[in-house]
Write a structure and sequence with these properties.
CATH superfamily: Winged helix-like DNA-binding domain superfamily/Winged helix DNA-binding domain
CATH architecture: Orthogonal Bundle
CATH topology: Arc Repressor Mutant, subunit A
Distance between the termini: 56 Å
Largest sheet: 3 strands, antiparallel
Number of domains: 1
Number of strands: 3
Order of helices and strands: HHHEHHEEHH
Strand content: 5-15%
Number of helices: 7
Strand order of the largest sheet: 1-3-2
Structural class: mainly alpha
Length: 150
């Protein structure tokens, strides 16, 4: 699961203490973690996820229900397009971490802070020097209006 999340645009690097594994164990049940590894950054239809699972000989009769529960727990994202739900992985930040508001336990908070300190910000978030979120105009331009006191 950690390797899979690390392959997303904003990764999930390992630490020497493996605290990231403790975080994943608190957020995901084993079946949920397995299913999450069949998702991607790009939203997938339910039938696409079923097909991926079937290729590996896995079938979850209640797959849609499991995905809904994962969404409610803040471990995946759902997007509705033309009345159809599409499922995707949530990155750690912005994503899994923020979706846990209201569900944070003292242990999870402690592990997340430890993870931030041991690896996430140093190995991933601040690695490129490029902000994770930035405005990119499409077919338009942005004119900076920076008033200067004179």
């Amino acid at each position: 699961m950690r390797f899979h999340l690390d392959s997303l645009p904003v990764g999930f690097p390992s630490t020497d203490s493996n605290v990231e594994i403790d975080i994943l164990r608190e957020l995901f049940k084993p079946d949920e973690a397995y299913i999450a590894t069949k998702l991607s950054f790009f939203p997938l239809k339910l039938k696409q996820i079923r097909r991926k699972l079937k290729k590996e000989g896995k079938a979850f009769e209640n797959l849609e229900l499991i995905l809904e529960e994962m969404y409610k727990k803040g471990t995946i994202a759902i997007k509705k397009t033309e009345g159809e739900k599409l499922y995707s992985n949530a990155m750690f930040v912005v994503g899994l971490y923020e979706y846990q508001l209201g569900r944070l336990t003292p242990n999870l908070v402690s592990n997340i802070f430890k993870y931030f300190k041991e690896g996430y910000f140093e190995k991933e978030y601040n690695l490129t020097g490029i902000p994770q979120l930035r405005t990119i105009p499409v077919n338009e331009s942005i004119s900076p209006n920076l008033p200067v006191a004179t």
